[in-house]
Design a protein that fits this description.
The protein has helices at about 5-10, 15-20, 40-45, 55-60, 65-70; strands spanning about 1-5, 25-30, 30-35. By secondary structure, it is an alpha+beta fold. It has one domain: 3-Layer(aba) Sandwich (YefM-like fold), CATH 3.40.1620. The protein has a three-stranded mixed beta sheet. Strand 2 (about 25-30) and strand 3 form a beta hairpin. The protein is rod-shaped and about 75 Å long.
Length: about 80
């Protein structure tokens, strides 16, 4: 468990973000923990939330779709109707 003061966080945010990739970082204000910085993966695991629909739609396609084959005689063929 990493602990840093809010002053140290303000001076070096990049260092805190790097540390949060490995483990949650507790941020203190006047010696008392006030916030926790963690990676999005750790947050999702903690809350049980998966990826949002926006993130899923932004992912590159893993399979190619043959649109020409789908159009020929399929539901997209406007001449068959």
């Amino acid at each position: 468990m990493k602990v840093i003061s809010s002053r140290d966080l303000n001076q070096d945010v990049s260092r805190a973000k790097r540390a949060a990739r490995l483990e949650p970082v507790f941020i203190t204000d006047r010696g008392k923990p006030t916030h926790v910085l963690m990676s999005i993966e750790a947050f999702r695991q903690l809350t049980g939330h998966g990826e949002t629909i926006v993130e899923l739609l932004a992912m590159p396609a893993t399979t190619e779709i043959d649109l020409e084959a789908a159009r020929a005689g399929g539901a997209w063929d406007r001449s068959a109707g």
